[in-house]
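Predict both folds.
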Amino acid sequence: MVVDPAFRVSRWIRDFSARGATGVRTKPFDDWSAEIQERLRQVAEVGDDEVMAIASFTSQKEWVLLTSARLLFAQNGPVHSIDLHDIRDATVDLGPSMLRRPRSKRELRELIIETRSGDTYELDLEPGKPFFGFWNVMKLVAASSSNGPSAHLHVPQHMSNRCQA
């Protein structure tokens, strides 16, 4: 069964709000000003068939954008684009490096995106409720892809890509 992209995005936004909250720099795409929306469309080269869902925007060089088809992000470098069907899981690093940093759950900000090919990307997101809302949405994305997410929390030993938005 094919799900309408606009319906899927509305579900993600509803889940983002229910399990997290809009923040200063992380919110549903339509809640951003027209200027920020246009900047993101341009730098992300969003297709006409894509519906924008949630964006985290720090600057034109540091941002994350979830659309109905892709997860796009940049950190002072090239734009990365991951097809949503390629996302295997979204998790956090609970390994030794995390244990050395005294943090509460509300301070979590690094979300690890794992792809089916084994690549990992670390997104630096707004901590607190915006982080948890985005994490939950990415779990939904992974679960809806062809093979679903991993059944357990996977802690990558080495991060292959680190990005901040």
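Second protein follows, with its predicted structure tokens after the sequence.
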Amino acid sequence: MAPVHPQRHLEKCWEACWHRARRPVEGVLVPEDEAAKIAEQVLRNICLDYQELPPEAEFTARVIQETAEATRDLVAGIRRKAADPQLHHDPEDRRYSQNLDLDRLQRAHPDRGFSDPEWNRLPEILRPLALATLSRKGIQGADAEDVFSDTLVELIREREESRHAPILDPTVFEEIIPLHSRIVQYRAIDWFRRKSALKNQPNAGESFDALTSDTDRPMQFEDASDATLSFDKIYAECREALSPLEWQLLYHLYVAQTSTVQDLVTNDAFCAKLGIKAGASASTRRRVISELVEEALEKIRENLIF
């Protein structure tokens, strides 16, 4: 394949920049002339960092990422200055009625935490979207409401690694929607795990009715030969096969479940521990982390005695 001419390469990057500046995140729409200014400035600044153009994919990824960040920062500043969170919101976005004040949602009181009255309005925006997602997964009614309540708590729960609550991640309000959607996905998985674990527990009801009337947990007896693997057993048998960092990675993701892969992708300090270069794109970080996880699991499979 013939190499792309540098001029054509830059033209393609500028076009990609412009489109991303127009819509840095779903629900935000920037005027065309303003998007052109942002694209030109970002492209110019990045070009100054290089003596010669890097590979097209690397350059384009950085350009698009920094354009999105610059545009979100600009929109947030405009909204903050005008005290109008609806500015630059896409009028075609019908997912919810209007934006809330992100600054107020992110304001934490030293004693009461995230308690601004703006939080009273957030559930009415997120609930329909969350319940629709949960319904498609087969979680409905009271169960869905319970999962939804858990997701609201998750928005303000500090991550163990970063000591940073997810609600503080967005720059513009529209980013809360995909952020919460990811949390809903994870909590749905947790719900199915808990349900599965409950079904597998022996039904030790105190009466015959208790033993026979629970459709989710029919009468059963503990299997004395049950050899369920625990993390402690896996660690004892495979301790030397994995590095401390690999154990830490698996523990956070699968045992304590205090972090998701996305959390680790955005955690600069942890990525540095993994040897990921500063400034690496999110896709690069995710790929490296996924490869490290798979390698660690493969080591366990090779060393574990069944």
